[in-house]
Amino acid sequence: MKKKLIKATCLFISVLMISLSFVPVVFASNSAIDDARHSVVRVWVPGAGTGTGFIVAQAGTSTVLVTNFHVIAGADKVYILPSDVHGAWIEAQITYLQTGLDLAILTTTTGLSGRPVLPFADISNLRAADTVYALGFPGTADDYIDFGEYMPSSANDVTVTRGIVSSVHAVFYNTDAIQHDCYISHGNSGGPLLNEAGAVIGINTWGNPEPGAARSVNYAIHNTYIINAFNEFGIEYKTQGGFAGMDFAQLFSSYWWVLLIIAGAVVGLVLRQKRVAPAATAAATPVAPPRPVQPPMAQGMGYPAASNASSHLICSRGHFAGQTFPINGVLYIGRDPQRCQVVFPSDTRGISSMHCELRQQGSSIVIVDKGSTYGTFVAGGRKLNANESVQLRPGDSFYLADPMNEFKVL
């Protein structure tokens, strides 16, 4: 017994020492921050200037990005530069703005589909003195390269600065913000502020502009503003979670627990060395195969997620004849591409910018006219009043402005 105990102790120490040899590898660098550079892009408004944006959602070939409103304010065209100003330009559409909030959401349909998506962190766990990172394209760096005329904009050109949180709940122009001391300058606007797991906690919006002043007072607006906008428009996004979502303190704590459990298990196996005769082995009990898991329903860009199977809409006559559209919670029809999921051409007669809304309620659909000029018509040709809602069931039809714009609920 004594020999077994000595053997187990030696084995315990060996396992512990081998495991400890990996600790410097875990903490030597932060690959999550380096990887996050591939999600950061340069936003360029010709004749106005540049800023930073970052990728937060993907659906097919569509890519959703976030930046500051002041980066693209008054722009006729907004471009993403994947390499530099002399390379390809990717035009981005402005899909979300809110008065009084320095936030803009952009969408592109080409050129960025292979880039990774940054997840959002739960900032309720954020504390003062936590380490944070600011990623972007600071103008002070551009000034040293052809005075900004070249503007290198690849992932490898993204600048990373590190600092700490000075205040989690600062107020910046009536907006909840994180105060931090990461060095940022003009050009960083719209870039992400990340925690050590590479998850977004805010959008870098403002730095100390005084010449010669110490730039240690900087602000990033809370990520909750982005999340609220995404929830409103039904855009899917990733959140930080699991082992990869732990900060270093949590990781270190969890790592030691894992070591102790492994070492304890090894000691237990050594001390227990008991042989089981084949004849004494219990007959294997058949185990029923696991039930197949139903794969989640794919969600399209711009459609809110729904827990139940969605109803569908088919266009029986008109511009979209033969096309079907899922009603995953809510669906807007009109000519405004920023607010509607079924978008008629801008020159379509009789269709308002926001014509009508369809909302799923259990097994039925409720249609609401949104104050359209030429009306929404249901069974029997009855025209709905503005904001009047009517319940539709599978098989029911309705049309917008003209019987030629007819849809049916499936």
Explain what this protein looks like in three dimensions.
The longest helix has 24 residues, at 248-271. Residues 22-29, 242-255 and 274-309 have low confidence and may be disordered. The chain has 3 domains: 2-28; 29-263, Thrombin, subunit H; 311-409, Tumour Suppressor Smad4 (Sandwich), CATH 2.60.200.20. The strands form 4 sheets. It has a 6-stranded antiparallel barrel with strand order 1-2-3-6-5-4. A 6-stranded antiparallel beta barrel has the order 7-8-9-12-11-10. Strands 14-13-23-22-19-20 form a 6-stranded antiparallel beta sheet, with no helix packed on it. It has 7 helices and 23 strands. Helix 1 (2-20) runs antiparallel to helix 7. The radius of gyration is 28 Å and the shape is globular. It has helices at 2-20, 23-28, 31-36, 69-72, 139-142, 224-233, 248-271, and strands at residues 40-45, 49-59, 62-67, 78-81, 90-98, 101-108, 131-136, 159-172, 175-180, 192-194, 200-206, 218-222, 311-317, 324-327, 330-334, 342-343, 356-361, 364-369, 376-378, 382-383, 389-392, 397-400, 406-409. A hairpin with a 5-residue loop joins strand 10 (192-194) and strand 11 (200-206). With 410 residues, it is α+β, with helices and mostly antiparallel strands. Helices cover 18% and strands 32% of the residues.
